[in-house]
Specification:
Bound molecules: adenosine-5'-diphosphate
Mean pLDDT: 87
Low-confidence stretches: none
Number of domains: 2
Number of helices: 8
Oligomer: single chain
Shape: rod-shaped
Largest sheet: 5 strands, antiparallel
Radius of gyration: 47 Å
Distance between the termini: 45 Å
Strand content: 15-25%
Order of helices and strands: HEEEEEEEHHEHHEEHEEHHEE
Number of strands: 14
């Protein structure tokens, strides 16, 4: 599934980048052909100007006449051997052909376009007819503001075509290499994009497996208690009562587990704006310490608090924060042996509110520290299950703190104790 998505991503990436590249290459080719045309046009114009500069217009037998005797190519002098000009023609003001060099031209001037591209097929040899592309100029020649004739001449476009052909080859080659590199980059980026999805998917799979496993154990306990209760003789009220009590106990713990799972799934790291309000965090922690739950858990423990006298007001969801600190406190109580110490602190530091829960309990091994915030992670399954934990308390606390743009961290040493710290932005 992931490989298919990765392939699709790479394909779409290559396709989109490829179309952009091809469009870019097309524009470059178009620009280059325009430039080549400009070069040939300016050369053609220069040559035409040199020829027309030699046209003489003077009176002869009482009439003004055009003299082409000294005109290169059209005059009496032989054409230079290195001349590229394919043909040159002189038409009078009425468009009648007067002189020409090269190919036999039409008698009458048809078009008076300045520049034209002309296709010339050379079919002298019928077996191999060659096509030559020419660029032709038709330049009106004036004397005292009056047209005295037209010079028409053409140059072959072979050189420009050769340059364009080489340029096209280079473009095709570059585009092909770029496409190859793009598809490699697409494959690599697709892999990168898949990483967090693959990670979330694996997490989800682990979560589902763990949740089903955790739910199966209490269900099995309920079933076996019910079966044992049913097998007991009708008049054995004591056994039936004991079994029912056990069933209720297990159902309660199942209820807690489902409640926790629902909490994690529903909240999913977001806060409801209506639940946010300004409140005094010192008051909230004071209340929490007085609560029955902590008292019960803290039997045989020394619970200390170091809360400031002044108020620390923050904008947050008080119920959620109470739940997060409660999870940390009840863990501290759960994992600290009788006679141990648990301390709750609150202070501000570098523009942040810091809540610390410290105990001198059993501590957490270093190899477990990176995982304790994962859902269903328990350092010692047997021990924590007997303490009534499913491995969701820290995950819930972390989700709550993260939703408040805060940070939950831990420092712990086996046998020495643990320090959990919540940092929240001061609002
Ligand atoms: P649980 O509900 O099982 O306690 P948590 O998510 O709250 O799950 O904690 C995960 C694991 O981290 C626990 O199994 C426990 O081993 C360890 N842990 C958490 N808090 C403490 C603590 N204060 N002292 C020692 N171990 C702790």
């Amino acid at each position: 599934m992931f490989n298919r998505s990765r392939r699709n991503l790479a394909r779409w990436f290559t396709l989109s980048m490829g179309s952009i590249l091809i469009m870019f290459a097309g524009t470059l080719y178009y620009q280059e052909s325009l430039q080549q045309l400009e070069i040939i046009d300016s050369l053609l114009y220069k040559k035409a100007r040199v020829i027309t500069g030699n046209v003489k217009y003077r009176p002869h037998q009482g009439q003004e006449q055009v003299f082409l005797g000294n005109v290169p190519l059209l005059g009496n002098n032989p054409p230079p051997p290195d001349s590229e000009v394919v043909y040159a023609r002189w038409y009078d003001a009425e468009g009648q052909l007067k002189r020409f060099f090269g190919q036999i031209p039409p008698e009458k001037l048809r078009e008076t376009f300045e520049f034209q591209t002309i296709k010339l097929s050379n079919d002298e040899d019928s077996s191999s007819s060659t096509v030559i592309w020419l660029r032709q100029i038709t330049l009106p020649v004036q004397h005292n503001g009056q047209i005295i004739g037209y010079l028409q001449m053409a140059l072959p476009m072979t050189r420009a075509q050769e340059t364009l052909r080489r340029f096209l080859l280079l473009l095709v080659f570059t585009v092909l290499i770029a496409l190859g590199l793009t598809s490699l980059a697409g494959w690599f980026l697709g892999g990168l994009a898949m990483l967090p999805i693959r990670h979330s998917y694996q997490q989800l799979q682990r979560f589902t497996a763990n949740a089903s496993h955790e739910l199966r154990a209490p269900l099995a306990a309920i079933l076996s208690n019910a079966q044992v209760g049913l097998l007991a003789p009708i008049d054995d009220g004591a056994t039936k009562h004991l079994r029912l009590e056990k069933t209720v106990e297990v159902a309660k713990s199942m209820n807690t587990l489902i409640g926790n799972l629902l909490f994690l799934a529903r909240r999913a790291g977001c806060l409801v704006p209506e639940s946010l309000r300004y409140f005094d965090l010192s008051d909230l922690l004071e209340e929490l310490l007085d609560s029955q739950t902590i008292k019960a858990a803290a039997q045989h423990l020394h619970i200390k608090s170091d809360l400031p006298k002044h108020s620390i007001v923050i904008n947050a969801d008080p119920d959620l924060l109470r739940q997060a600190v409660m999870n940390l406190l009840s863990n501290a109580c759960k994992y600290t042996p009788q006679g141990g110490k648990v301390e709750l602190r609150l202070f501000t530091e570098y523009g942040q509110v810091v809540i610390q829960v410290e105990d001198n309990g059993i501590g957490i091994p270093a190899e477990d520290l990176p995982h304790i915030f994962e859902r269903f992670y328990r350092v010692d399954k047997q021990r924590t299950r007997s303490a009534g934990g499913f491995g969701l308390g820290l995950a819930i606390a972390q989700q709550i703190v993260a939703a408040h743009d805060g940070h939950l961290s831990v420092r712990s040493q086996v046998g020495q104790g643990s320090l959990f710290q919540i940092e929240l932005p001061l609002t």
